[in-house]
Specification:
alpha/beta; 6-stranded parallel sheet
């Protein structure tokens, strides 16, 4: 059956929403007349602006459902989805909450992933076969194929153009450094941030992200930490000459925009959560290599070394000067 309406359930996280974009793009390319709606956390909804694949973005007010009575607020909100009644609901999240949302929309069919958690898999009419060794992008493409999408064309990540920052005068060429992540031991230390800017001086470095950590840069550093929104971050990424980022959501946005990116991985496995762009670069276990390298197939168990800032700075300097 060719669906005339599709509901995508993928509220979070930032990186996972980026990874779902190609699957939804294939759905729209295959079912050109279908109206596609996407439920996303309110804070990530700007990521879906200007997306021609979508008819509507439905903000999920996740933060309103905390504390006493939160579950009842969530149930009440979910009931409001019953008016949608899409032909097909695709649960890319794979949790009980997202399965509840999916069923609340009263779709004719609900599809999910085979390894969905919290008993959510029992809520699906069909499940796409996936396995733990797959990158998130490939997992989500499997769900799109189950829905009937042709995924044989080039991978595309439809992202907004971003919003220009007029309050800061930026150099013509700069390295964008995103050194912060929520995961333990993923972020660069204040000392590592300073060392990186110092070692590639006089090349300008624009530091972005959100953090309460106090840090300093050398004279070539420009800090916009806690000073940009999501659309401004995208604009900075598009304008940068090279991106250096720890494993994080903004890294995945950067990798979707440009191959001129180095992703730093301490304990995380780049074959699972690294940049999907085959021409992007990875630092892991004292080595720098491209995603397309066969090293992506290696086992990284036990490799939890701190970043070699001198090695990373030397690599970035060479990329900027040649």
């Amino acid at each position: 059956m060719t669906p005339s309406s599709v509901l995508v359930v993928k509220p979070s996280s930032l990186g996972d929403i980026v990874h779902t974009l190609p699957a939804v793009h294939y759905l729209k390319a295959t079912f050109g007349k279908a109206k596609i709606s996407w439920i996303a956390n309110r804070e990530w909804a700007p990521l879906l602006e200007e997306n021609a694949d979508l008819t509507a973005v439905i903000p999920f007010p996740r933060k309103e459902f905390g504390g006493p009575g939160g579950i009842f607020k969530f149930i009440r909100w979910s009931r409001g989805l019953s008016r949608l009644e899409p032909d097909l609901v695709l649960d890319f999240q794979g949790l009980f909450r997202s399965a509840w949302i999916s069923r609340s929309a009263r779709g004719k069919s609900v599809f999910g992933l085979s390894d969905s958690r919290e008993a959510s898999r029992f809520c699906y009419d069909k499940r796409a076969l996936v396995h733990p060794g797959q990158h998130s992008v490939d997992r989500y493409l499997a769900l799109a194929r189950l829905a009937g999408a042709d995924t044989s064309g080039p991978i595309e990540f439809p992202l907004p153009r971003g919003k220009a920052i007029s309050s800061v005068e930026l150099p013509e060429r700069y390295v964008l450094l995103h050194p912060f992540a929520r995961g333990a031991s993923k972020s660069l230390t204040p000392g590592e941030i300073f060392e990186f800017t110092h070692l590639i001086d006089p090349i300008p470095v624009v530091v972005v992200g959100r953090s309460e950590t106090q840090f300093a840069t050398d004279r070539n550093g420009i800090s916009l930490v806690n000073g940009t929104d999501l659309l401004e971050l995208i604009w900075l990424l598009r304008r940068s000459s090279f991106v250096v980022s720890v494993d994080s959501g903004p890294m995945h946005i950067g990798a979707a925009i440009t191959p001129d990116l180095l992703s730093i991985h301490t304990w995380s496995d780049p074959s699972l959560v690294g940049p999907y762009n085959p021409d992007a670069w990875i630092w892991k276990a004292q080595r720098i290599f491209q995603v397309r390298s066969n090293r992506m197939g290696e086992s990284w168990a036990g490799n939890e070394e701190h970043p070699n800032i001198a090695q990373i700075a030397s690599f970035v300097r060479d990329r900027m000067l040649h």
